[in-house]
Amino acid sequence: MAVLKWILASLTVLAITVLLLRANAPRKVGYPEVLVTTPVGTPGICHHCGKAITEVGPEHLLSAKSAEYVVCGEQCAAEMLQWHKANFGQ
Length: 90
Hints:
The chain is an alpha+beta fold and 90 residues long. The chain is 41% helix and 13% strand. The relative contact order is 0.11. The model has no long low-confidence stretch (mean pLDDT 85).
């Protein structure tokens, strides 16, 4: 009977050890790695008027604080900047 208790106690300790090791195993923590992308060199659509742009270039990018918009020209850029300021300030 003592041997049976010893075996059950050993198995219990082993099972608890396995569970604790699995619970404390290193995991991938945090957010996935951020990949920086750009619309430059790809087809795009003007955020203001919806006009198709065959290939977005640096001249089509409008930065307003942390936002970046694709626009087709100066007029849409001005109107998009005005819209951004009205909705998000500055």
